[in-house]
Specification:
Blueprint: E1 13-15, E2 24-29, H1 32-41, E3 46-59, E4 63-77, E5 84-98, E6 112-114, E7 119-121, H2 122-133, H3 147-151, H4 160-164
Parallel strand pairs: 5-6
Antiparallel strand pairs: 1-7, 2-3, 3-4, 4-5
Length: about 170
C-alpha cells in the first residue's frame, strides 16, 4: 500500500541549485487559507499575518544558508485568564542545509538539515521556526497570577524547627 505524502500548509519551495553565488533575497507571505491551517497546526485561535524576509546564500559546497527575519500577527490564549489576546511576534531566522549524505556525524554538522529533492521549503522553515519560538505558557503583557500566589512564602519544612534550635 502506497502512503500519501502530506504537504505543509505553507509551502514555498526554493530550488537549491538556483541560488546564485551572491545569494538571493526571498520575501514570502502566507495566504488566508494557509494562516488558518497553520493556526490549527499550532493550536492557536488565529494567525492574522505571517511573513518572512530570507537571504539564501551558498554554503559549504552545495549547501545553503538561510538568514532572515519572521514577523507574525497572532492570537494566543493566556494561561492566566484563559482569554485570547493578540500579539505581534518578531524573530530571527537562521538555518543551514546540506545535500543528502554531505552531513555526517563525524563532520560536526548536526544542525544542518538535508536538502530533500533539491528543494528547501522556505514556508515550512518559517512555520517550524515560529512554532518552536512560541511561548508554551503565554500570557498577556503585564498579566500575573494573583498577588497572594506569587508573594506567598514557601511552605515550611517539617525540619525548619531544627534550624531554629541553637545548640547549647
Amino acid at each position: 500500500m502506497r502512503q500519501q505524502r502530506s504537504f505543509p500548509e505553507f509551502s514555498r519551495p526554493l530550488p537549491a541549485d538556483r541560488v546564485p553565488a551572491a545569494g538571493s533575497l526571498e520575501n514570502i507571505t502566507a495566504e488566508p487559507a494557509e494562516l488558518k491551517a497553520l493556526a490549527a497546526r499550532m493550536k492557536l485561535p488565529a494567525i492574522h499575518a505571517l511573513s518572512a524576509e530570507i537571504r539564501a546564500t551558498p554554503w559549504r559546497g552545495g549547501g545553503i544558508k538561510l538568514e532572515g527575519h519572521i514577523t507574525a500577527d497572532l492570537e494566543q490564549v493566556s494561561v492566566i485568564s484563559l482569554e485570547p489576546f493578540r500579539e505581534t511576534v518578531s524573530l530571527p531566522l537562521a538555518r543551514y542545509f546540506l545535500p543528502p549524505g554531505a552531513a555526517t556525524a563525524s563532520s560536526g554538522e548536526d544542525d544542518a538539515d538535508p536538502i530533500e529533492g533539491g528543494l528547501i521549503d522556505l514556508g515550512e522553515v518559517v512555520a517550524e521556526t515560529l512554532a518552536l519560538d512560541l511561548d508554551p505558557y503565554p500570557r498577556r503583557p503585564g498579566e500575573a497570577f494573583a498577588e497572594h500566589l506569587e508573594d506567598a512564602e514557601p511552605p515550611s519544612s517539617p525540619f525548619a524547627i531544627l534550624g531554629r534550635k541553637k545548640p547549647g
